Amino acid sequence: MSTKKTLRNINKIKLTRRQLMSGSGALGGLLLTGCDTQFYKPPVIREGFMGVADVMTMASQRMLLSNQQLVQEHDASEITKNFPVWNQSNPDDEEYQRLRAGNYADWRLPISGLVNNPISLSLEDLKRMPRRTQTTMHICEQGWSAIAQWTGAPLMSVLETAGGVTTEAKYIMIDAYGGWYEGYDMFDAVHPQTILAYGMNGKDIPLGNGAPVRLRVERHCGYKQLKFIKSIHVVSSVEDFGRGTGGLNSDFGFHWYAGA
Amino acid sequence: MPSTTRNWIFRHTINARICHWIMVVSFFYLLYSGIMIFLHFPELYWGKVGFQGYPAIFRLEDWGISWERAEELGDRRWGRNYHYLFAWVFVINGMIYLIWNGWQKKFYQKMLPTREQLSIRNLKSEFARHIKLKAAKGESAASYNILQKVSYLFVLFALFPFMIISGFAQMPAFTAISPELIDFFGGRQTARTLHVICSLLLVVFVFVHLVEMIIAGAVNQLRSMFIGKYEIHSENAEESL
Fold first, then answer.
1. Predicted TM-score (pTM) of this structure
2. I need a labelling partner for A169 at 20 to 30 A (CA). Which of A108, B34, B60, B125 fits?
3. What are phi and psi of B9, to 5 degrees?
């Protein structure tokens, strides 16, 4: 993508921000509905008591999170040395290996689906966007935790660059190299600490931690922090993805909502 | 020769009985699913961070079960699903128990120690009786003894709430909801470690509870937890007549 087009997109961000302030933008509308009950349940509710418990857990936490408060940020001195490399550490994917060999210069992030202006961003485009740096704790559902500093573009800014989402948009589905994918609702998408991170501890994200770009969605367990991001689809329904539960982890039988 | 007569008293109310058995089932599932989760990461740490390779304060490996073996035994997917399901059962059941009983004066009479029970003389004799593993006889068996009351109150109002809040302190959402809670424990890993230690204390409680039940008469005790009625063996026939 040329620099000119990126600049046009950045101008578009300003426009969307203005819409957002007036409450006419789709994302602005979503920001105002932090207490909306649609955020109290996962896209697909499991059968039986397990589904009841899932909704109770998610609804109670979302009520407590309805002000979109930020997660605790730590001092840079608390950054963990030897941050663990967990799960997929180097995608067994021809396209990924080709991009990696070219130092991700040809890596593109298409943002498609229910957005007003589908686009494709390069790593340089992302780095030129408004950035956020946060030192947060990564909590793995298995039990470990570690602190790292992440730098990236807020997902909300990225969606604004794509012209904002349409009114039917409900979920953000993100594909990763190596076959992983995960879904997120607008409640998490608009959170200021939800970022597409390209930097870790002041450097480019290392291979094992999800190079070139991974998601940080801080109020969730590690399995929602998707690594090796490939593409973003904004959708109204999750049923066309995988087994239709809204993410690979929930396809495997884990909670879709990972705040607990 | 003293003869024994059979007297029946009404020991456990219907709410105590229902809540007790729901709690037994949910406690079992919470413990079992907790073990299943733990086995997939069988190390404990102190402070904010901890991971494989970080200095641990407890490693299952040191106790003869390798990391790989523990992973085979555990099942965190099943464990997590059932841990949260039964955590809700446990919490709702506990709230029903407290609200339902909180209305009744009988509950306070049954659970709170009397002044007489707190006397040094009584404490001494109760300790001695428990160490000798002897059952309470006659009228004193009709109500909870001092050690029983103190341990029940400690479990209900100290260990159970501690399990719940140390559970909250491990949840990622609480890094936004209440980071103060995580700091209160001194970090996420400390909360996890204390959660495990507290669960072990509860296991000790259950063990002692079962031993005491057997000493005091398993049939009589269990029957009273199902139907409410409890049999008192009075040693002095004339007195009870």
1. 0.89
2. A108
3. -120, 160
